[in-house]
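hey
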């Protein structure tokens, strides 16, 4: 029964940009190194291996001997090195120039380091768009693997999926291999013999059939309990031994060998698609559950079984609809990419800085923080922080590449987030402020350029399909890895911590509450919103001076049905680390008395961590950054992070009615799912100065705030200088 069936076994090893060093090391010890150890004992096992760029760079710095072993196995033809886009972006979200650039850069890196030819690539998350075909071919790629789900969506039958195909775009062709979803689920979660049974079925149906397994290498040692199963209990050893023992009819083959030895089955045009689960995760919770139910119903109903393969969810791009934070990251990335392209066309002043900007831009395109499914993804603050760190790094490098002045100020506007509305960017060499007038006049991004940190890399709390399981409580929810097992609850009481936000968790969000609103009611989302300003549309205008610029935001709205005008002026000067924010309410009736609370969020400053705390005006430690505080008559409050060298100080001037602000603080914590179970994740801390607003004789009320954000060493001095200047301007 020689070559009755051919098996292509493809592993994808990946760690995202920004993941913790300890996670890389643990994955290396639990999965990557043991896999190579096992391959050295089983020379009959031949496979293709993709190592993502972030992981390859870490291995080069920490375990170069691993890459040396990969090179030796590639030279021996036991493995084929699979390329890809360097920093594992979802290619469908990139401009063609960045797709091609990332692929070529990683191919060059792999061929130089591993001394082997790279002809194929791994498509991140198997997110496919037919418009990518020509770009992949242009980048020198000859083949890739996608899920059989893609091929079924194109109308192919099961018995047509045991071979490779061509696809075409703009006259260029690419070989595509269909990955078996069945094998993805049985390896390594069923007995090794289950895979052989499936291969016997394929061989009996067609002599010379091709079976393709392609999935995460972390399934073999990193996912929960898999190190014990695969290595300690010997699942992989038995599996490899079985394949070697049946080599008379199972031939382990490499993708490039298949292409050389067999003609393609034909040409097929695959639709926009990803693997099945991904198309479900991108849907809103209720639609996600409906899609799963419809697919299961179609599978079990004989009258509907024929259409089951066409039941799929949505487009990966709509994670940017589900999570506005993902769209903000994407939009920020595209601003940098476009700037890079413009400079590349005209020629940089500093080539080294330009090359640094290219690498940082590509790192900022790593896909993991842009979506959420079985893994934490966008819910993980350290991944979001890493994306912004790279994008800010790229901006700083582009400043040097352009030869920009050491001190500068600019205010520009455009539809940066692709929503048909105009956003404003107010920036200098220290701070980068992004304002959305149409969405509550909010400050939605605040970059500290020297620390390369976005203080507003926040995440709103919103419904997720799996929250129904969380609300059911421990002992009822099922694992996303193995539905036969109960899900793990990483903290007690998670079912009581599921909450949703009515407004964005950003800054300069304007709330009006009842006079007797309490800190607890506001923190728990029980205080009633009495105004229409928090989500309302603000008119925006820009005032420009050579070294000082201001964005004026104005809205005619109402509180309790009482019309009033709220204006807030956001001012930044060249050379300054301080944002001045002036509030003015006009048209107030004489008996107006209402609670105004201005919400600020600070992200990426962890709670319950050493070296991170609140400090009052006298420098006293008020508690860690997840603390609930109800402070009375506050003039200044600082948030400090020793690790990031950040101090953010909010200075509340005396309001026009003579009142000092009170300040409420409380954490924003989300309940999310990961491969390890359900967990509570600290997303940001709210700092909310609030006043009881009563008008003066002219029906007005005013207050000035300053926010100084910089390093621990310089922030205090900068705050003092700004405060003195503000007093001079206001006549205080």
């Amino acid at each position: 029964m020689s070559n009755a069936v051919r098996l292509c076994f493809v592993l994808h090893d990946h760690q995202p940009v920004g993941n913790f060093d300890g996670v890389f090391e643990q994955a290396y010890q639990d999965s990557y190194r043991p896999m190579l150890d096992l391959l050295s004992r089983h020379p009959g096992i031949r496979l293709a291996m993709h190592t993502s760029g972030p992981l390859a760079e870490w291995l080069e710095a920490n375990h170069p001997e691993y890459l040396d072993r990969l090179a030796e196995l590639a030279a021996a033809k036991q493995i084929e090195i699979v390329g890809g886009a360097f920093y594992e972006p979802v290619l469908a979200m990139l401009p063609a120039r960045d797709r091609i650039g990332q692929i070529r850069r990683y191919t060059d890196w792999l061929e130089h380091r591993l001394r082997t030819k790279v002809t194929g690539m791994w498509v991140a998350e198997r997110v496919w768009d037919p418009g990518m075909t020509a770009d992949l071919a242009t980048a020198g790629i000859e083949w890739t693997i996608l899920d059989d789900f893609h091929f079924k969506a194109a109308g192919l039958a099961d018995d047509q999926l045991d071979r490779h195909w061509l696809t075409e775009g703009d006259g260029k062709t690419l070989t595509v291999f269909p990955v078996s979803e069945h094998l993805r689920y049985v390896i390594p979660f069923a007995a090794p013999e289950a895979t052989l049974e499936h291969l016997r079925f394929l061989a009996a149906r067609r002599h010379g059939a091709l079976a393709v397994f392609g999935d995460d290498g972390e399934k073999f040692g990193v996912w929960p309990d898999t190190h014990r199963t695969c290595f300690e209990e010997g699942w992989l050893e038995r599996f490899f031994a079985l394949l070697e023992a049946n080599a008379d009819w199972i031939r382990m083959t490499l993708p490039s060998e298949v292409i050389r030895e067999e003609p393609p089955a034909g040409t097929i045009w695959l639709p926009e698609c990803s693997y099945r689960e991904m198309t479900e995760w991108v849907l809103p919770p209720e639609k996600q559950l409906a899609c799963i139910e419809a697919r299961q119903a179609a599978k079990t109903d004989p009258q509907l079984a024929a259409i089951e393969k066409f039941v799929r969810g949505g487009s990966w791009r709509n994670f940017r609809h589900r999570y506005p934070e993902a769209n903000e990251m994407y939009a920020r990335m595209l601003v940098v990419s476009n700037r890079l392209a413009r400079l590349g066309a005209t020629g940089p002043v500093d080539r080294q800085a330009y090359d640094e900007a290219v690498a940082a831009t590509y790192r900022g395109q790593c896909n993991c923080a842009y979506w959420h499914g079985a893994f934490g993804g966008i819910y993980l603050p350290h991944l979001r922080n890493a994306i912004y760190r790279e994008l800010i790094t790229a901006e700083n490098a582009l400043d040097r590449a352009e030869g920009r002045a050491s001190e500068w100020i600019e205010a520009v506007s455009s539809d940066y987030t692709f929503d048909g509305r105009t956003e404003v960017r107010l920036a200098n060499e220290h701070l980068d402020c992004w304002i959305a007038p149409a969405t509550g006049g909010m400050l939605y991004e605040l970059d500290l350029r020297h620390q390369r940190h976005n203080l507003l890399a926040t995440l709103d709390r919103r419904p997720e399909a799996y929250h129904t399981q969380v609300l059911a409580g421990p002992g009822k929810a099922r694992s996303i890895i193995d539905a036969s097992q109960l899900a793990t609850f990483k903290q007690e009481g998670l079912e009581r911590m599921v909450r949703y936000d009515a407004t964005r968790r950003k800054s300069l969000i304007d709330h009006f509450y009842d006079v007797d609103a309490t800190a607890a009611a506001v923190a728990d989302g029980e205080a009633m919103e009495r105004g229409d300003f928090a989500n309302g549309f603000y008119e925006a205008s820009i005032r420009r001076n050579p070294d000082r610029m201001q964005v004026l935001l104005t809205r005619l709205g109402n509180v309790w049905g009482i019309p009033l005008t709220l204006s807030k002026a956001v001012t930044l000067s060249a050379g300054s680390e301080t944002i001045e924010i002036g509030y003015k309410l006009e048209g107030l009736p004489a008996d107006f008395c209402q609670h105004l609370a201005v919400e600020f969020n600070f992200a990426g400053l962890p709670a319950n961590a050493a070296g991170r705390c609140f400090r009052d005006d006298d420098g006293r430690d008020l508690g860690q950054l997840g603390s609930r505080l109800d402070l009375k008559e506050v003039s200044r409050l600082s948030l400090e992070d020793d690790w990031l060298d950040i101090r953010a100080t909010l200075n509340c001037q005396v309001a026009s009615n003579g009142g000092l602000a009170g300040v409420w603080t409380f954490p924003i914590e989300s309940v999310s799912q990961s491969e390890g179970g359900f967990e509570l994740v600290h997303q940001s801390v709210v700092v909310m100065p609030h006043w009881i607003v009563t008008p003066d004789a002219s029906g007005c009320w005013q207050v000035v705030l300053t926010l100084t954000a910089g390093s621990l060493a310089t922030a205090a001095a900068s705050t003092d200088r700004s405060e003195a200047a503000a007093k001079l301007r206001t006549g205080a």
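The first strand starts at residue 5 and ends at 13. The CA atoms of residues 608 and 624 lie 6 Å apart.
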